[in-house]
Amino acid sequence: MSDTRRRVKVYTLNEDRQWDDRGTGHVSSTYVEELKGMSLLVRAESDGSLLLESKINPNTAYQKQQDTLIVWSEAENYDLALSFQEKAGCDEIWEKFVQGKDPSVEVTQDLIDESEEERFEEMPETSHLIDLPTCELNKLEEIADLITSVLSSPIRREKLALALENEGYIKKLLQLFRACENLENTEGLHHLYEIIRGILFLNKATLFEVMFSDECIMDVVGCLEYDPALAQPKRHREFLTKTAKFKEVIPITDSELRQKIHQTYRVQYIQDIILPTPSVFEENFLSTLTSFIFFNKVEIVSMLQEDEKFLSEVFAQLTDEATDDDKRRELVNFFKEFCAFSQTLQPQNRDAFFKTLAKLGILPALEIVMGMDDLQVRSAATDIFSYLVEFSPSMVREFVMQEAQQSDDDILLINVVIEQMICDTDPELGGAVQLMGLLRTLIDPENMLATTNKTEKSEFLNFFYDHCMHVLTAPLLTNTSEDKCEKGRVSYLSAYDFYNIVGSNKNNTICPDNYQTAQLLALILELLTFCVEHHTYHIKNYIMNKDLLRRVLVLMNSKHTFLALCALRFMRRIIGLKDEFYNRYITKGNLFEPVINALLDNGTRYNLLNSAVIELFEFIRVEDIKSLTAHIVENFYKALESIEYVQTFKGLKTKYEQEKDRQNQKLNSVPSILRSNRFRRDAKALEEEEEMWFNDDEEEEGKAVVAPVEKSKPEDDFPDSYEKFMETKKAKESEDKENLPKRTSPGGFKFTFSHSASAANGTNSTNSKSVVAQPPPASSNGSSSKTTNLAASVTATKGSLVGLVDYPDDEEEDEEEETSPRKRPRLGS
């Protein structure tokens, strides 16, 4: 029994003035040596960990609220609350421990000025309460001045609150209000406004319970109508009694529940509408009012949940085809409000709440109402759906995957959501933005569960890309297709009657000219960019199969810069992955062209588009993505070399040339190794001749590097040099033949198969002139065969073809040899 009586929930007030549930446990009071005093301890019922350890301080203002709550502040911005399961437990802790240490004489929530504290200590105990003036019309000004004067002193606030409570003073004041209103005593009404507002700022729950009772609350609202700063009084009571209607979608039979709902609505109205927004210094003045509303909402949700018949009846009417539209609208609005109130529940109770809704069929019901024509109903259904997704995306995912086994793609819940996003009629697409955020949550792998039996991530993503992705990308693919319009004409696509498309003058492709369509495509691109970042092979396969990046880059021609930036951001995320699979797709498709065109069209304007394009190429340079660097330099450097206000493109050229030199050095290093192995046994006999030959060879290499495209010596010189060199090696011929295959296989591979490797990978010559302006020269085949025929003899010599003979195709061959090592892994894959 004692365990149940002492069972509590611990709450703390967060920065947004909302109560956070810290856990459930059992409260006790004991002496804590470290704190040097009696303290309240709460240990978690799950694992016995310490949820709360708070010293009972006689200078702390403890407040008992609604029979089961004890609330107090431990620091200026740190409020705590204990919510007891039973009233008896709250009374026991309050009487035995808290009240005994808090005699209501010198309670305070804030630091007290020392002189003020001493002054009150000198007062006799019999005069601890403030003497209130008699409650009469001619004393209203005096009462208002008294209440205003005590607000700056925490001690005097407490003393005044006790005096008001003990003497039943509030009800007497409200009687005077009715008299002043009957007499049209404007001055008295202005004083009563100051008095009632000041009493609210005393922040005492016991006073709130009197003021917000059915008997008093409308008179309190009436007092707050007569703000002296206003020329005419507000008509809050008229709004609450005549304009605001209490709608019962299903009759509520519990009178206590009805009273609690009325009270909560009116108190919320006082806080949000009547009272001015508190300043930074007044935020804590109404913390108890916020708590009062919070715990009222908790009680309302709990009472409705306990009524088993009520929710069943609501769902029955919501899903009944015979229910008229007005009634269905009220039912959906009720659920929206109900879900909003449920946010006040502690996690385990909120878990039970949403599971109850799921069992009753909230998701199939939402599927129906989200497809209705009524904008208010769709909006309310979207809000309810957002509560469900935020609470448990896994629950929603499980439902839609089960649904897919029984229904067509068109009526799947996620596709209904996507269609609502696409068809949002709001010019600013407010609903579409909200739905896009929910879709992102549903497809986010970070909140997907992985278990031993099944992996939610793979199952759901397979489902999404099979059944839903085509619906999401339909507007994008429709608006970027090349066969939907003629050059220079506006095109209207029947699939989406609000798409206004104009043709591009460059590529006969189209891009949206309608602002609302551009906004929608920007949202879709944002979601696809998220997929690139968080999904792996699913989105990669989809991009390749649909050639999606090419279609997206059509939007670089849009007159709406924000849409062009979204397209660029999509490409930037792909390149940011540094995935060679994507890189090959980009280079083979020549997909940098629309980006560079956009940069050049932008001209000298220094804007976000300019900066974003520059950043894209700067990333490639800094990360040294070799395949993209080579592609850019070889194909576009002439167009970009004039851009000198940043060093990005010169830096790319430098990186490209450094890599080219590095590849040449690798090629040159192979014969030198062979050379050292070949002659290591009798270096003395051949030392002088070998040194002379290599020196000559290096000089020839130097000349070739300086002018690689010019023809050097005639080919007739090659046999003479070769024969001279071979005569000096004749004595070692047999030994060299044994070792030659092992030593020369890497060099032989590079020289012999560089063309075939490039051909297998579909690479062109890296000569920038021939790539852009013309196909590779016909002589490349001849040079390839020539290289093949001479492979054995070349590898037996110094090894650099440029050094021995500089025939016209050398540059092309060298560059293909450079490409070969990078492409070779693909041959084996």
From TrEMBL:
Residues 5-95 form the PP4R3 EVH1-like domain. InterPro entries: ARM-type_fold, EVH1_PP4R3, P4R3-like_central_dom, PH-like_dom_sf, PP4R3-like. GO terms for cellular component: centrosome; chromatin; cytoplasm; nuclear speck; protein phosphatase 4 complex. One of its GO terms (molecular function) is protein phosphatase activator activity. Residues 710-741 have a biased composition (Basic and acidic residues). Belongs to the SMEK family. This is Protein phosphatase 4 regulatory subunit 3B. It comes from Microcebus murinus (Gray mouse lemur). The lineage of its organism: Eukaryota, Metazoa, Chordata, Craniata, Vertebrata.
